[in-house]
Write a structure and sequence with these properties.
Blueprint lengths: L1 E6 L9 H12 L4 E9 L13 E8 L6 H14 L8 E6 H6 L1 H7 L6 H11 L2 E4 L6 H14 L4 E4 L9 E3 H6 L4 E4 L9 E3 L6 E3 L2 E8 L4 E3 L4
Parallel strand pairs: 8-11
Antiparallel strand pairs: 1-3, 1-4, 2-3, 2-6, 4-5, 7-9, 10-11, 11-12
Helix pairs in contact: 4-6, 5-6
C-alpha cells in the first residue's frame, strides 16, 4: 500500500483539494491499482487557516511491484506545482503503509488540536515519511501528514472516489451500487441493506475497515445515502 496525502491546495475561487487529488489519482491509475481517494475532516478552529471546511485528502494505491517512493513523490509534487493556486499553502506527503500507520495518532490529534508545521516536519523526519511544503507558508504539510495517518487507520473519513461510484445517478437498485465498487450498504445501526432503491446522486461512502461502506436511511420509498466522517 502507498498513501499520498494532500492539503491546502486551493483558495476561495478555485476547485478544492479533493478535485486535485482525484485528478492526480487518475494520472497514476495507469501504473497503480487505485483503491480510492478519501476526504478527512480536521479541526475547525479560528487559529487555523483553511479555505472552506479544513478537510484534507488521501490517495490510496496498491503497489504490486517495487516502488521508488522518492520518485513517486517528485512526480506528484510536479503535478501539484503545475496546478499551484495563488494564496494556497499546499503540502504533500507520500508514505508506505507501515509509515502511514505510525502517523495515525498525529492525524487524530489534528482533528482535536491545533498542531504546528514544525511538529509535522519533525515527526515525518523521525519515521521517514516524505513530507514537503510546496508553496505559501507551507502549513498544508500538517493536513497532508494527517491525511495519510487517518487513511491508514481505515476507519475515518469518506470516499470522494471509489470504483465507478461517481458515475452513478438517479434511483438504482442496491445491487447496482455494490457493482460500482462499494463493499456494502448498511443502516446506521449496522444492518445490511440488500434490496430496494438507492438515490445514487453524489455517493460518498464512508471508509470503514479500509473498505467503502455506504450508510443509508429510509426515506418513504427509497434509501437515502448519508455522508459520514
Amino acid at each position: 500500500m502507498i498513501y499520498i496525502g494532500l492539503d491546502d491546495t486551493d483558495n476561495l475561487d478555485s476547485r478544492g483539494t479533493g478535485h486535485l487529488a482525484r485528478a492526480i489519482a487518475g494520472q497514476l491509475a495507469s501504473e497503480f491499482s487505485l483503491l480510492g481517494v478519501t476526504r478527512h475532516q480536521l479541526l475547525v478552529d479560528p487559529h487555523i487557516r483553511y479555505t472552506a471546511k479544513n478537510s484534507c485528502a488521501a490517495i490510496c494505491l496498491k503497489d504490486g511491484l517495487e516502488v521508488d517512493l522518492e520518485d513517486l513523490f517528485e512526480r506528484v509534487s510536479g503535478m501539484m506545482s503545475a496546478e499551484f493556486v495563488a494564496g494556497s499553502d499546499p503540502g504533500l506527503c507520500v508514505t508506505d503503509a507501515e509509515t502511514a500507520g505510525a502517523m495515525t495518532a498525529f492525524g487524530q490529534r489534528a482533528q482535536r488540536e491545533v498542531l504546528s508545521l514544525a511538529e509535522a516536519l519533525l515527526l515525518a523526519s523521525q519515521f521517514g515519511a516524505l513530507l514537503q511544503p510546496l508553496g505559501g507558508d507551507g502549513s498544508g504539510v500538517i493536513g497532508a501528514l494527517a491525511a495519510v495517518g487517518l487513511a491508514a487507520c481505515g476507519d475515518d473519513g469518506r470516499y470522494v472516489q471509489i470504483g465507478r461510484s461517481r458515475l452513478l445517478s438517479g434511483m438504482l437498485e442496491v445491487s447496482q451500487v455494490l457493482d460500482a465498487g462499494i463493499l456494502s450498504v448498511q443502516t446506521l445501526e449496522g444492518e445490511p441493506v440488500r434490496s430496494g432503491l438507492v438515490l445514487a446522486d453524489k455517493l460518498r461512502p464512508s471508509r470503514r475497515c479500509a473498505q467503502a461502506v455506504l450508510y443509508v436511511e429510509w426515506a418513504r420509498d427509497h434509501w437515502r445515502p448519508l455522508k459520514l466522517d
